[in-house]
Amino acid sequence: MVSSAHFTVLHIGNDIKYNPDLYKTFSSKFTIIQPWLEERQRATLIQALKDKKWGDFHAVFRPFWNSGGEMGRWDEELVPHLPPTCSIFASAGAGYDWADIPTLSKHGITYCNGARASSEAVADMALWHTSVTQSRRGLGALRKDKALEDEVKATFYEDLDDMLAVSDCVVLATPFFGEKLITGPRLSKFKKGSRFVNIARGTLVDENALVDVLKSGHIFAAGLDVHENEPHVHPEFCKMRNVSLTCHNAGGSWDTASGFESLAMQNIEAFLLEGKALTPVNAHLVQKK
């Protein structure tokens, strides 16, 4: 096992709330630096990194999404200023809109999300939005486990449009990776009279196009926990009785918040001390330093 004595972690965001004992142990293993709120503003943070204010730290730790995002997106403007010693970014949240994965990968940084912690709560929300649907297809994650796919009698489709054409209800559960997935042309591929649920990211969907197919009846109903222009909701959805709306709170349970904190700490510890993160998003893309 690698000694943790020389590893430094940059903690961006407010204090730990749900796992004080675990954080105490975490802090005993690593040197923790926690910038103040003012230091986390984008221009100030970039300048501090340029000035090496926090030295050669090895990890970035963001334990919850309500804070720690003051600097905006971790992109080509920001990431190159991280010290060459920084090799992991462990964050709360299942999605990673704020993280430019190709840029982090290019600079040799493994990004770990918190999807494992929110899966149950998000699944509950998806089921609530689809409660009036009699059948569902498109269990994409099962492709990673052929035995499980066979057990639940799921069918994997190589072509997304082929799956959309036969699905009674489509549940969108994929990260945003820079472009819309559900566009006007793609909505036309949906089975007539089907339902659509989005518990992923609102930016994946062309909402104006979704309004059109809902009004035409091609899509019978929609359930949306996430929205294209959050915190704003498309005004047309608010007028529709065939649209159920929640405010991006699918992962808002206590268990999820606590899990985000603990999983981020566990990812950093596993990566720095054992050499392998628990929930890496880009392990297959990271370039060696």
From TrEMBL:
Record keyword Oxidoreductase present: yes
GO MF, one example: NAD binding
Keyword Ribosomal protein: no
A cellular-component GO term for this protein: cytosol
Residue span(s) of domain D-isomer specific 2-hydroxyacid dehydrogenase catalytic: 73-282
InterPro entries per UniProt: D-isomer_2-hydroxyacid_DH (IPR050223), D-isomer_2_OHA_DH_cat_dom (IPR006139), D-isomer_DH_CS (IPR029753), D-isomer_DH_NAD-bd (IPR006140), NAD(P)-bd_dom_sf (IPR036291)
Protein family according to the UniProt entry: Belongs to the D-isomer specific 2-hydroxyacid dehydrogenase family.
Pfam families registered for this protein in UniProt: 2-Hacid_dh (PF00389), 2-Hacid_dh_C (PF02826)
Domain D-isomer specific 2-hydroxyacid dehydrogenase NAD-binding: 149-250
Record's keyword terms, sorted: Oxidoreductase
Gene3D superfamilies: NAD(P)-binding Rossmann-like Domain
Protein name, as recorded: D-mandelate dehydrogenase-like protein
Superkingdom of the source species: Eukaryota
